[in-house]
Amino acid sequence: MLKNNILAITLVVILSACAQEKPVLTGVDGSAIPPAFASFPDIPFPEKSYIDLGETKALGSGEKWIGSLVFNAPYNASSVFDFYVSEMPKLKWKEVATVRSKISHMTYTRERRAVQILIESDGSDKSQIMITAIPNEN
After folding, report:
1. In contact, 75 and 131? CB cutoff 8 Å
2. CATH says 2-135 is which class?
3. Which of 20, 79, 82, 126 has the least C-beta neighbours within 10 A?
C-alpha cells in the first residue's frame, strides 16, 4: 500500500512538471524574444524572423555581445528599415546615421557600444538583415 502511494505521488509530481508551460523570454522592453535570439536582448527583432546560424558570428551574450548576427525576416526592406527606426530608440539606442537604399545602412550607439544594421532585399517581401555590434569608447 505504501509503495502504491509513493508511486502515485511520484507520478503526479512528474506529470505536473511536464505540464508546466515553458517560460516566455522577453527583451528589455517586455516583448517576446524568439529562442534563437534570446542571447541578444538589447536588439529588437521583427516577428517571424529566423536566424542564419551559418552566417552569424557572435561572441558573448546579454548586453555585451559583439560580432555579427545574420537573420531573415518575411518583410520587405522598407518595412524592416521602418521597424528599426521605430524600435531602436525604445531600447535607448541613439541614431548616428541612416541611409535608405538598395542595401540600407543604419548606425546606432548606446552606452559603450555601437551597432550597424544592414538591410537587403531581393525585391520580394523577404529581407536579410545583418547587425554588427562592437565596443565604442567614444
Report:
1. no
2. alpha beta
3. 20
